[in-house]
Model the fold of this input.
Amino acid sequence: MPKAKITDAEALAFHIDPTPGKFEITPSVPMTTQRDLSLAYSPGVAVPCEAIAENPQTAYDYTNKGNLVAVISNGTAVLGLGNLGALASKPVMEGKAVLFKRFADVNSIDIELDTEDPEAFISAVKLMGPTFGGINLEDIKAPECFIIEQRLKEEMDIPVFHDDQHGTAVICAAGLLNALHLSGKKIEDCRIVLNGAGAAGIACIELIKSMGAQHDNCIVCDTKGVIYQGRTEGMNQWKSAHAANTELRTLEEAMDGADVFLGVSVKGAVTQDMVASMADNPVIFAMANPDPEITPEEAHEVRNDAIVATGRSDYPNQVNNVLGFPYLFRGALDINARAINDEMKIACAQALAELAREDVPDEVAMAYGKKLTFGRDYIIPTPFDPRLIHVIPPAVARAGMDTGVARRPIIDMDGYEQSLKARMDPTASILRGITARARKNQATMIFAEGDNSQVLRAAVQYQRNGYGQALVVGREEDVKAKLTADGLGDAVRELRIVNAANTEHLETYKDFLYERLQRQGFDHHDIHRLAARDRHVFASLMLAHGHGDGLITGATRKSAYVLDRINHVFDARASDGAVGVTAILHKGRIVLMADTLVHEWPETEDLANIAERAAAVARGLGLEPRVAFVSFSTFGYPVSERASKLHEAPAILEARGVDFEFEGEMTADVALNADVMAQYPFCRLSGPANILVVPARHSASISVKMMQELAGATVIGPILSGIDQPIQICSTNSTSNDILNMAMLAATRLGKR
Ligand SMILES: NC(=O)C1=CN([C@@H]2O[C@H](COP(=O)(O)OP(=O)(O)OC[C@H]3O[C@@H](n4cnc5c(N)ncnc54)[C@H](OP(=O)(O)O)[C@@H]3O)[C@@H](O)[C@H]2O)C=CC1
Ligand SMILES: CC(=O)C(=O)O
Ligand SMILES: [Mg+2]
Done:
């Protein structure tokens, strides 16, 4: 079964929110003052213009050309959906542009050209040459794609690469090398059937033949069946080159006894009977998107000895060009390459194949919920493998340098690999780690506010994304009505709705609550009202009795109120050691701030406790803690009563002999900026702080909200830490996505004492 089912409504919502489409463009230079304007625009901009006119190579220094790739299509072969036209191909092209950025930090923009005339296409792209460091052609149907790519390669001096041809061929080759290794077959001896003789098909068969597959052992099919010598219908010169001397006429006949099936055609082109007729240990790459030629379930049902791959993310063995194009271009751009040649493609295929045979990092294993080891269900690295960025581009760059296409060869390869590691946003791996741990823990999550639409949507997502069971506290009719209004009517049957009327535990909950509150002025009547009617209390009681593994609340009421209700059931006060830790993610940095929830105005001892709790959360996130106690003074100046607690707190940690770095007091710029910190050579932090312990809750709230509103930072938390149970308190402004993130945090049990 595919791991995570997505609905059409979810796919559309993903493309609408938060703004239509999938990316935007942001400046990389300041653009606020008169001086900025003078430098960026007139008159300053004239200087680089003249420099480039004199020496065109300097365009790589003074413009974004060297890290900018165009993803260009005319929409004539959009995935396996056919000729949808230029406009309808835009979501795919935007998607490829985002993948370039996400996986290899290549800036990319989509361009959809409204023409099916190869000449018009060629001249449009050629005219754009000065803008880009490379051209990625996408989803252009065969045979026009061959003509277009060939001409552009000849006429342009930057890499032109048709991803559906060569990207697909490279990944297919890498996967096939490993699949044949596992099935103990040699490529020279294999009978190979290729279905689909278009852009992807022709390139795949050419590369595979160059790796040793024998022409006489390869049968290529298209909509008319087998491409045999002498066939005239539906032919072109690219197909003719692969016509077989054979009596076979149909795909069905060709599949009988075949060792390998490569599908780059359309959904459902292969039947179970065909698979059943293949040789022992057959290799089946059903690569059509979005739906494969045959699903892995169908193939395995008739052949449990098959090694099956698809182009999709939701099955094992994703043979998809996403593993290639970002890294091929990264390597090519970094040597200012004139082209991406065959040697660079083969280097990429080999590096990918070798990487899959190496031990897989835990991070990847966690994302997939199991330890991946080289084998039938893991023949090719997964797209989220963090090693791809620093392993594949160097292999590509080296091959480019060895074959003379590099305008700027890389001299220090080790330094290059380090710089590749630094390109990737560390926050992405932290978020992925949270997701992975949540999925692994399969926690039953209690969503206290079942009368809120955002909460319900988050609960549905929690369950549908495979994190575990979602329990929603609320009235059944209410939940049903809200879900239906949000187009999620079918989720009613999936969620478990719990309330005082349908639980068998109400009396137990009430006894428990009475025991805790009887000496605080609560009588039986009060207890019944709290347990049966207050959903924050009811949900907390469920958690306290093990009727759920974590609790999400706070989306409908202010956090102070919610915390007060939770305290009826749990000991989550400042005096109990509870601390709120908020993670701020911005521009590739992650900084934790504490206490953002519980301590209103902490004493010196409290500040030291807060630092310890925040350090534990940081470690849980995979960060090595560096704590700064922040204020408006630095190391005692200006002297102030307000800063004195922050000044004294480090001495307490020192006396406790904690095993993490700390320092204070200091201003936030000293804490976060290495150059400013360097003005205090005695400072004991080995680098910028990643935990800021703030003087009080108001300063925490102001800082977090300013980062969110002014800088657009991603804020996760507050993570309620230091209590026995995972409870997360959202804010009343939380989106369903924020609430889902909170649920995942609760599922990781990061804050737990
Ligand atoms: N996993 C991956 O990374 C990638 C997968 N693909 C997938 O490969 C497929 C083809 O893409 P692309 O090469 O760009 O498209 P093209 O339009 O260039 O080629 C399509 C080819 O498939 C053939 N075909 C269509 N339907 C059938 C059928 N029922 N039986 C046999 N052959 C058929 C066509 O035959 P004819 O020539 O007779 O018209 C044509 O040769 C798509 O599904 C695409 O999603 C593509 C790139 C990457
Ligand atoms: C993956 C891809 O490029 C395609 O299916 O067209
Ligand atoms: Mg494509």
Remarks:
- The longest helix spans residues 163-183.
